[in-house]
Known about the structure:
The structure holds two protein chains of two kinds. By secondary structure, chain A is of the alpha/beta class. Chain A has one domain: Rossmann fold, CATH 3.40.50.720. Helices cover 39% and strands 15% of the residues of chain A. Chain A has eight helices and seven strands, in the order βαβαβαβαβαβαααβ. A seven-stranded parallel β-sheet of chain A has the order 3-2-1-4-5-6-7, sandwiched between helices. The longest helix of chain A is centred in the middle third of the chain and has 22 residues, at 106-127. Chain A is globular, with a radius of gyration of 17 Å. The model of chain A has no long low-confidence stretch (mean pLDDT 95). By secondary structure, chain B is mainly α. Chain B has a single domain (3-80), classed as Non-ribosomal Peptide Synthetase Peptidyl Carrier Protein, Chain A (Orthogonal Bundle), CATH 1.10.1200.10. Helices cover 59% and strands 0% of the residues of chain B. The radius of gyration of chain B is 12 Å and the shape is globular. The A-B interface holds A 98-100, 102-103, 153-154, 201-207 and B 18-19, 21, 41-46, 48-50, 61. The complex binds NADP nicotinamide-adenine-dinucleotide phosphate. NADP nicotinamide-adenine-dinucleotide phosphate is lined by residues 16-17, 19-23, 41-43, 46, 65-67, 92-96, 115-116, 143, 145, 188, 190-191, 193-196 of chain A.
Amino acid sequence: xxxxxxxxKNKNIVITGASSGIGRQCAVECAFxxxxxxxxxxxxxxxxxAMDDMPGDRHIALPVDLTxxxxxxxxxxxxxxxxxxxxxxxxxxxLQMTCALNQMNxxxxxxxxxxxxxxxxxxxxxxxxxxxIPQDGSSLVFISSTMAAAGRPGLTGxxxxxxxxxxxxxxxxxxxxxxxxxxxxxxxxxxxxQMMQDVFSTLTPEQxxxxxxxxALGLGRPRDIADACVFLLSDAARWITGANIxxxxxxxxx
Amino acid sequence: xxxxEHLMIDRLIEFFEEILEKDPGQIKPYDKFREYEExxxxxxxxxVTKIDEQFDVTVRQDDFQSLATIDDIARYIxxxxxx
Lengths: 254, 83
Ligand SMILES: NC(=O)c1ccc[n+]([C@@H]2O[C@H](COP(=O)([O-])OP(=O)(O)OC[C@H]3O[C@@H](n4cnc5c(N)ncnc54)[C@H](OP(=O)(O)O)[C@@H]3O)[C@@H](O)[C@H]2O)c1
């Protein structure tokens, strides 16, 4: 029987940030979709724990600090040496930081840009090397944020990184179209993950209730984002590139 | 008041001056800092981040509600560090 176009059967999918939150859920849903997943993050134990929730036994855990740029390409290539082709990438590794503009400094901007933007662009470069692209092409998905389109005090640095991903994805989509590589973004609204719990622990109760407002459909779950990623990774999205899909319960529709 | 606490108050005053962009001398140890026009939730985040970084003390949200002056914050930090 022919594969359903939403299926990820026989696809190798690289997922960064797979040890936690949205990235971890993407890994689980891709595995349920039939993919073999290469899970990347720093924490080896959490990667292995994520694999325990995934059907299939051919997945690979790759504990790597994606901001150690010297040698990054070598460790990724070594990690995926047993895999001939990369059919998809989800860059979900990221860092959130709420910080007033007058407290920001170059180190803080750098730490945000290193993981949210540069790591994503680097890994995209590595997995779109001609030798890794399957004949039918591949699909790259960058996790941006509603904060690329909407503003909030304290998020100047973070929003800049998420906006950078949207812009980069469009040009990358144009550049790689001839190789049949599609490039898209998913922009989540508020999802209760470890990152958000950490953020909320620094906020005042008034800020917390403020942050919960504006979601016509209530707050999201990691699964909501993972499902959108699975769609973009699948052949069902074969004619979608350079796009951004807001998955935010209506937040940016207002 | 012990010498150490004086130094801590001086440091906290510097933090407040920097975060609220006040000129030296405008912040006093017994001012009720929530009454400064510039005080807001982002200033709160900046302050607890600085206290964490510089004094290695994590300020609990509900503890902070009970602190009214810079002097109170200094005492809280000193107590949390066990000094
Ligand atoms: N949660 C939300 O509400 C929300 C909303 C909009 C956008 N987003 C975006 O969605 C993405 C995932 O967020 P999340 O909420 O799932 O966060 P999370 O639970 O904190 O997960 C972040 C992931 O990034 C990995 N990571 C961080 N630094 C890394 C590094 N240097 N090298 C390799 N991996 C690294 C972490 O793994 P290790 O610690 O094991 O390295 C972890 O797996 C982020 O880009 C975030 O900006 C989230």
